[in-house]
Specification:
Largest sheet: 8 strands, antiparallel
CATH architecture of the largest domain: 2-Layer Sandwich
Length: about 375
């Protein structure tokens, strides 16, 4: 296996084209923190690492936009933006080592998705290299861009199966004046679901609303079923949360940051993780069905369930009672019988897009759960 480490996007495009022309399969890799996601990566003839593409291409804080190369570490991006009171609130796992390109290619999003959205909502443009060695732009550097096709939306979550992302343009959000979080301890899944329902029906609009079962709560240093609420803004607003959530444990500063880091890093900490999309009303059912730790994005209907063995994860996904939910074995530490039980009719369109971008199938073979 050859390791290719281009110093810039031109070298990357040339290396990609040469490998593709020779019929070699190519694994595109940032820092490698997402190799357990998206199904197993088949052995490739060459590995193309993007770490050398780590520059800031364009940034004017007054425009609330930034363009950075794909190999820039996510934490470096956060540090840069923090100095200007700005952020890209994706909260990805493995943020300490992950690259910008890896976060976007894996479509990572965390607890604050409820308020700010996912990667497709924050990415306004990209630059990418094709298997022919061409460099192309999609989108731009303005939030409302109506020119051309939104090809970057197809590249988000593609796990490097379509092209090699070389740069990403983000729209930014101002950091709130301050943040605060609350932990509501509950005795049962039913009580936790009820507390969640009361928040959703109320006047509060938290940035994050997660529910942990006891096994997941223990990983975060908590006990029992826990409803986690996070908000940001002026003290007057946070004071309203204090009153509405009277009796809850209040966290700020490092204690608050430590809690959310544990939540964000839940999936990488587990041998196997199923990502389930389900109705909001199914929260109690999800919590009670989890044989191990479970973290629920209780405001968006997405849950993450940890399993010690692949077979147990597959059995949970194949339960007939969950056939109406979306189910993926998103993180895996080894081979599994099945990763994506029901891809739906969209799979045929995904295959057509793959054929248009990569007709010889040389990019990241095996990714996207063995379906592409």
């Amino acid at each position: 296996m050859r390791i290719l480490r281009p110093a810039d996007e031109k070298e990357l495009a040339e290396a990609l084209a040469a490998a593709a022309a020779a019929g070699e399969t190519v694994e595109i890799r940032g820092a490698g923190t997402k190799r357990r996601m998206g199904g197993p990566v088949a052995d490739a003839a060459a590995v193309l690492e993007t770490g050398g593409l780590n520059r800031v291409r364009q940034y004017d804080p007054r425009d609330l936009t930034i363009s950075v190369e794909a190999g820039l570490r996510w934490k470096e991006l956060e540090r840069l933006l923090d100095g200007h009171g700005q952020m890209v609130p994706l909260d990805p796992p493995c943020a300490g080592e992950a690259t910008v390109g890896g976060v976007v290619a894996a479509n990572c999003a965390g607890p604050r998705r409820r308020q700010y959205g996912a990667a497709r909502d924050m990415v306004i443009g990209m630059r990418y290299a094709t298997v022919e060695g061409a460099l192309a732009d999609t989108g731009g550097m303005v939030v409302k861009n109506v020119a051309g096709l939104d090809i970057h939306k197809a590249l988000v979550g593609s796990f490097g199966t379509l092209a090699a992302i070389t740069a990403v343009n983000f729209k930014l959000a101002p950091k709130p004046e301050r943040t605060r979080s609350w932990v509501l301890a509950c005795a049962s899944a039913e009580e936790a679901a009820g507390r969640r329902d009361a928040i959703l029906r109320g006047v509060l609009q938290p940035a994050a609303l997660d529910v942990l079962n006891p096994a997941a709560a223990a990983l975060a240093g908590l006990e029992g079923y826990c409803v986690l609420v996070r908000a940001g803004g002026p003290e007057a607003l946070l004071g309203r949360y204090d009153r509405e959530l009277a009796g809850a444990e209040r966290l700020e500063g490092e204690a608050e940051a430590r809690l959310w880091r544990a939540v964000e890093e839940f999936a990488p900490s587990q041998p196997f993780v199923v990502r389930a999309g389900h109705p909001l009303a199914a929260l109690r059912e999800v919590l009670e069905s989890a044989p191990g730790p479970c973290v629920c994005r209780a405001g968006t209907g997405i849950s993450y369930l940890g399993f010690a063995e692949a077979a147990a994860a597959v059995r949970w996904m194949l339960d007939p009672g969950r056939s109406g939910w979306s189910r993926l074995l998103e993180w895996s530490s080894g081979p599994a019988e099945l990763y994506w039980p029901d891809p739906g009719p969209e799979l045929e369109w995904m295959k057509k897009i793959k054929a248009a971008f990569d007709p010889k199938g040389v990019l990241n073979p095996g990714r996207l759960y063995g379906r592409i």
